[in-house]
Amino acid sequence: MQRLQKQLLPALRAAFPLPASHFSSRLLSASTATLSPTRFVDEDALVAACGLTGAEALKASKRLQKVPSNLDAALTFLAFLADFRLSKDDIAAASSRYPRFLHLKVDETLTSQVARLRDIGLSTPEIGRLITIAPCILSNPRTISRLEFYLSFLGSYPRVHSALRNNSSLLRRNNIESEVKPNIAFLEQCGLTTCDIAKILMSGSRILIMQPEHVKEIVACADKFGMPRESAGFRYALMAVTGISPVRVSAKLDFLRMVIGCSDAQLHIAVSRFPLILTYSEVKLSRSLEFLKAEVGLEPQYIVLRPALLGYSIQKRLMPRYHVMKVLNEKGLLKKDTDFYSMVKIVEESFFKKFLLPYHRSVPGLEKAYLAAREGKMFPEI
Prior knowledge:
Family: Belongs to the mTERF family.
Keywords: Transcription, Transcription regulation, Transcription termination, Transit peptide
Protein name: Os02g0749900 protein
GO biological process, one term: chloroplast organization
Distance between the termini: 61 Å
Pfam families: mTERF
Order of helices and strands: HHHHHHHHHHHHHHHHHHHHHHH
């Protein structure tokens, strides 16, 4: 409590010109009593005390202003959070996700929620991490039973944390008995293992919290790509088509067939190898294909067999590495069996070790030109 007092008092004094003794006594007592006249938590206090940006503070402040809330209540709640070692950044993240966060009252519901979290096995640090990504856990009693189910299904809090970080609505809007459990059972019938379903859940996919009828439509759509249901590709296809209507999927396939210039059979090969291609916008796909075909000179068949090329950024990955390949080729320094995809797919550290550092003396300025190109600058003549 005293640590939080030292951190917050200077900022709160600046935001609220009240006597210092007022803040000290209220923080130390952690009382829920109210003052008269009532004061609101305004944007200045949210920025100064909680680390919010101006835009985030304005958004949170508007929500708070709808219900009268005095400074005491906000101070009491912030003091309550001190036990969980939340930093300003943590509080800002929670407030951004849940604008009513700073309006929560330290009452029986709040303390009961924390007690229940401890009862299901969460440690104090884990509760603090949970509050940051799913602040609704403090105000909605129904979220505890949902959390308990996910802990049982995924096996540990770190795995649950990954799932919630990618999809916080898991705790807010779903019915375990009528949606989640039937969907898990159906996916298992389709050949997916518990491990497969857990990976889908942790990826942020919403498939488990959808209506079971919709999930069946998603599976039927993914089946059209001809991948074995037990394959990793089928799992990625499910994640790709989740949230995309069958009509939209058909339209995306027609678009890809046209811009790549390939047959239906070739397109199915591309989608089966990289299902996430269906999630990219037509604008991104068009620009990537134009660069790969017109600038790099790749044939449609080459792209079809390496569809992951379409997922990389032109500015950050494709263009800079193409220019490096071009320079090394012109100087006869590149091995004949080195193709464009082999240069694109490797991570940045490996690319430096293999294609930049060995030519530091023989091609001066190559590394600098590459880094400049990644920042959007023109690649110079070398």
